[in-house]
Amino acid sequence: MNVELIRHRLRGDFKPFTLYLSDGAKYDVPHPEFILVTRRSVVVANEQGLVDILDPLHIVSMRELETGPGEEEPQR
């Protein structure tokens, strides 16, 4: 995936989203502070502060984060 598409999602009115990888893994981005985008990698942190470094070539799609019944959207 072109990292510019991810950067575009981070601009303006942010909405939580999920990154989907070619191996079936998925990474939720509930707030812009949970992601860092460079030219060659995408770093995603989880709630515990642990990070995964992703190769943009393996990111196949991104979709708005869906909240389940009774769940609220993450606070911004």
Describe the protein in words.
The chain is mostly beta strands and 76 residues long. It is built from one helix and six strands, in the order αββββββ. The strands form two sheets. It has a three-stranded antiparallel β-sheet with strand order 2-1-6, with no helix packed on it. Strands 3-4-5 form a three-stranded antiparallel β-sheet, covered by helices on one side.
Morphology call:
globular
What does the radius of gyration come to? Answer: 12 Å
How many strands, what sense, and barrel or not for the largest sheet? 3 strands, antiparallel
**What is the count of DSSP helices, taking H or I runs of 4+ residues?**
1
Average per-residue pLDDT, rounded, comes to 89
- The low-confidence runs, each spanning 5 or more residues with pLDDT under 50, are none
Query: What is the H/E string?
Result: HEEEEEE
Strand order of the largest sheet: 2-1-6
Distance between the termini: 26 Å
What proportion of the residues is helical, as a percent range? 10-25%
Structural class: mainly beta
Number of strands: 6
Strand proportion: 25-35%
How would you summarize the topology of this molecule?
Layout lengths: L2 H8 L6 E5 L4 E4 L5 E3 L4 E4 L5 E4 L4 E6 L12
Keywords:
mainly beta, three-stranded antiparallel beta sheet, 34% strand, globular, 76 residues, 6 strands
A few lines on this structure:
The chain has one helix at 3-10, and strands at 17-21, 26-29, 35-37, 42-45, 51-54, 59-64. With 76 residues, the chain is mainly beta.
